[in-house]
Design a protein that fits this description.
The chain is of the alpha+beta class. It contains three helices and three strands. Helix 1 packs across helix 3.
């Protein structure tokens, strides 16, 4: 049984997912820069603005975690699962996440940061 309240767990999961989202956006930006698009500028600008916003959010999450004495660390990764160790106010807990679940969550965040947050 976990000793971590839901609000703090959400914060920890943000600290897990946002770096993954940054990696996806950076890779996509590199692909677009090398692609034969006629007008790359708008796509690159959208990704750069999104990266800026995600990095700011990650900085805020890390500051809140530091002030609450919370840390998260990826400890193991295999084909199916990724294990993260949560350090929460003197306690240490290992949590396994199914890799497709991680990918789906990052996909949700990508959709949110690219367009859903603008309430179209």
């Amino acid at each position: 049984m976990t000793k971590i309240p839901d609000t703090d767990r959400d914060l920890i999961e943000q600290a897990m997912y946002l770096p993954m989202l940054i990696i996806v956006l950076e890779k996509d930006k590199n692909i677009i820069e090398k692609s034969p698009f006629k007008l790359k500028g708008p796509y690159i600008n959208l990704i750069e603005k999104t990266l800026q916003d995600v990095r700011k959010e990650l900085r805020d999450v890390k500051n809140r975690m530091r002030s609450s004495n919370i840390k998260v660390q990826e400890t193991k990764r295999d084909k199916d699962f990724t294990t993260f160790t949560f350090f929460y106010k003197g306690y240490e807990e290992d949590h396994n996440y199914f890799n497709p679940r991680l990918r789906n969550k990052v996909n949700e965040l990508l959709e949110y940061y690219l367009y859903k947050r603008y309430n179209f």
